[in-house]
């Protein structure tokens, strides 16, 4: 019985061996493409003789980059790459491959892995960081099914590292992009190349000597389309990427800050529509005020002379012609304290702020004085005699919210 089992096992092994040889013969007829490179081919292959790369091995390289977060769809390899995945498009049942990544002198090994018979993927965990701008080689050692070295050692591909973020190349800034825009405007480091990806489309431009740039698009893009912008200088230094999204041109509400002293709300939204302000102050009912946006979308809503305390929630709603509406929730901020004139040798500072708010006076960023505004909104702070050139910084805290600071120089 044991002999029969051994004979059956031997027959299975022979089938696998000849199948492997057949698969190997087939794979030599497949495309001679070695690696799938990113859009930075110039950085990767500009100084390399691609003809020297071993052909017909059906290897594909992917990188996993901690700098950019996860699997790189564009296959970028940077100094932050921490894992390289090497894949065969066709499995080989008659060979074992030992893969290593080294420098061009084959002197330093950055990581290695083994792909066994019938396996497609090999993941190489890097034990050292790649250096930006350097070139590296992927080496293969072949073994037979019994693990014996066949004597074949050869490179299957080369790759270079792209530059990671360079602090000398500033992160670009762009204007808000809407689904109506066909041009993107922005600023970045002067005399650099701007790379824009919007959706699946890619654009390139340059910044002027003042850092400004504009990129004309083939067409507008739907709201929700993702975009990425970064710049590179002439040495390959890359900026941090700006990640954004295309917004709906008709789906925005801009509201100017509302202060506790304001009796009018202003902002910008969809042109020629009804705009409503719902003010929830009593927690029981909401007070409704209405206005209309003009042909450019600017609106002004009169609160009929009434003001609301800091922290009050205000919902602004624009009613679109299609029967839908858009809303934005904002709050009322404490007004900036009003300070009466101060002079040299004064020992009292007076003014007005929100009733019952906490007020702080800071003199020359050293001496600090605090008081509570009275119920009528007036305050009085006793200080040491003021001197010429003293800088006063005064703000209030009303309902847990700090106001903007008013700065005064004693003259």
Task: Give the key terms.
Immunoglobulin-like; 2 helices; 8% helix; five-stranded antiparallel β-sheet; mainly beta; 411 residues; disordered N terminus; 30 strands
What can you see in these coordinates?
A hairpin with a 5-residue loop joins strand 3 (96-103) and strand 4. The chain has 4 domains: 2-160, no CATH class; 173-245, Sandwich (Immunoglobulin-like), CATH 2.60.40.10; 254-333, Immunoglobulin-like, CATH 2.60.40; 338-409, Immunoglobulins (Immunoglobulin-like, Sandwich). 8% of the residues lie in helices and 42% in strands. The relative contact order is 0.08. The protein has 411 residues and is mainly beta. Strands 16-22-21-18-19 form a 5-stranded mixed β-sheet, with no helix packed on it. Strands 25, 26, 28, 29 and 30 form a 5-stranded antiparallel β-sheet that branches. A 4-stranded antiparallel β-sheet has the order 4-3-6-7.
Question: How would you briefly describe this protein structure?
Answer:
The chain is mostly beta strands and 411 residues long.
How many structural domains in the coordinates? 4
Structural class: mainly beta
Strand order of the largest sheet: 16-22-21-18-19
Low-pLDDT parts are 2-56, 64-75
Q: Would you count the extended β strands for me? A: 30
Q: How is the main sheet built?
A: 5 strands, mixed
Shape verdict = elongated
Mean pLDDT figure: 76
N- to C-terminal separation? Answer: 111 Å
Q: Helix share of residues?
A: under 10%
Beta-strand percentage range: 35-45%
User: Treating each run of at least 4 consecutive H or I residues as one helix, how many helices?
Assistant: 2
| C-alpha Rg (nearest Å) | 34 Å
């Amino acid at each position: 019985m044991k002999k029969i089992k051994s004979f059956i096992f031997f027959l299975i092994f022979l089938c696998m061996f000849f199948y492997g040889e057949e698969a190997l013969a087939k794979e030599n007829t497949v495309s001679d493409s070695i690696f799938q490179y990113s859009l930075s081919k110039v950085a990767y292959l500009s100084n390399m003789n691609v003809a020297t790369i071993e052909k017909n091995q059906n290897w594909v390289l992917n990188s996993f980059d901690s700098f950019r977060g996860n699997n790189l769809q564009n296959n970028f390899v940077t100094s932050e790459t921490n894992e390289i995945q090497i894949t065969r498009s066709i499995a080989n049942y008659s060979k074992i491959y030992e893969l290593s990544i080294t420098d061009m002198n084959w002197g330093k090994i950055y990581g290695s892995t083994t792909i066994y018979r019938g396996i497609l993927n090999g993941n190489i965990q890097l034990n050292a960081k790649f250096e930006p701008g350097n070139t590296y080689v992927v080496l293969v050692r072949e073994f037979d099914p019994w693990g014996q070295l066949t004597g074949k050692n050869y490179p299957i591909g080369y790759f270079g590292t792209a530059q990671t973020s360079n602090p000398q190349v500033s992160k670009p800034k762009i204007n808000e992009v809407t689904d109506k825009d066909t041009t993107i405007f922005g600023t970045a480091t002067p005399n650099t190349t701007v790379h824009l990806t919007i959706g699946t489309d890619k654009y390139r431009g340059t910044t002027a000597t003042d850092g400004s740039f504009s990129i004309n698009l083939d067409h507008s893009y739907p709201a929700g389309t993702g975009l990425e912008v970064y710049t590179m200088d002439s040495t390959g230094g890359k900026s941090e990427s700006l990640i954004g999204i295309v917004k709906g041109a008709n789906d925005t509400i801009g509201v100017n800050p509302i202060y506790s002293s304001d009796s009018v709300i202003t902002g910008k939204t969809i042109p020629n529509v009804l705009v409503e302000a719902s003010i929830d102050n009593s927690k029981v009912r909401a007070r409704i005020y209405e206005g209309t946006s003009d042909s450019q979308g600017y609106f002004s809503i009169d609160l009929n002379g009434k003001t609301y305390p800091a922290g009050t929630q205000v919902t602004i709603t624009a009613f679109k012609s299609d029967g839908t509406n858009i809303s934005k929730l904002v709050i009322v901020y404490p007004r900036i304290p009003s300070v009466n004139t101060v002079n040299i040798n004064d020992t009292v500072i007076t003014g007005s702020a929100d009733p019952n708010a906490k007020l702080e006076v800071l003199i020359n960023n050293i001496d600090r004085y605090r008081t509570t505004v009275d119920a009528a909104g007036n305050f009085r702070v006793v200080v040491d005699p003021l001197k010429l050139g003293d800088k006063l910084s005064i703000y209030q805290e009303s309902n847990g919210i700090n106001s903007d600071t008013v700065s005064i120089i004693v003259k």
